[in-house]
Design a protein that fits this description.
The protein is an alpha/beta fold. 42% of the residues lie in helices and 9% in strands. It is built from nine helices and four strands; from the N terminus they run βααααβααβαβαα. Strands 1-2-3-4 form a four-stranded parallel sheet. α7 links the parallel β3 and β4.
């Protein structure tokens, strides 16, 4: 079960399968236009508290780990700008839901609104994606992403 709070990732890494997958089909026009949509926070909450039906209801009932960051980075620049994820993090912390985050971002590690939610939370973990330690290569394919060095430092703080 994967989750993304935004329809688009701001990092636009050259190798990302999600960029190409989202740029085809029904949502192609919105994706290519640059429009960004977020999930409906109340709808997400209703799915997790069981008042709304979902294809994932059995997973949720059993508290199976949710992968946050399947097609977009959960802590990208969209999150920094809009903060939809922060509202959902507070909710998921309240219901003690297990989550695995996949990110390349580091800004949120210096934002107490986010880090306090991770503090002493044994059901949340982060995976920091790093393709290479060669910063010249990183800048060519992950143009809008923090350096691999910053991500390695960030990984040590979570």
């Amino acid at each position: 079960m994967t989750f993304d709070q935004y329809s688009k990732c701001s990092y636009l890494c050259l190798y990302c399968f999600a960029t190409y997958q989202k740029a085809i089909g029904v949502a192609k026009k919105d994706y290519l236009s640059g429009n960004i949509f977020s999930v409906n926070i109340n709808k997400v909450k209703s799915i997790f508290i069981g008042t709304s039906k979902s294809q994932f209801r059995e997973y949720i009932k059993l508290k199976k780990v949710m992968q946050w960051g399947g097609m977009a980075d959960p802590f990208d620049e969209n999150e920094r700008k809009f903060g939809v994820g922060l509202k959902l993090l507070k909710f998921f912390r309240e219901i003690d839901y297990p989550i695995c985050f996949s990110t390349k971002s580091t800004w949120w590690l210096n934002d107490l609104r986010y880090t306090e939610l991770f503090k002493n939370n044994k059901k949340w973990n982060c995976k920091f994606s790093i393709i290479t330690n060669n910063e010249e290569h990183v800048k060519k394919v992950e143009v809008k992403v923090p350096s691999s060095k910053d991500r390695q430092i960030g990984r040590a703080h979570v």
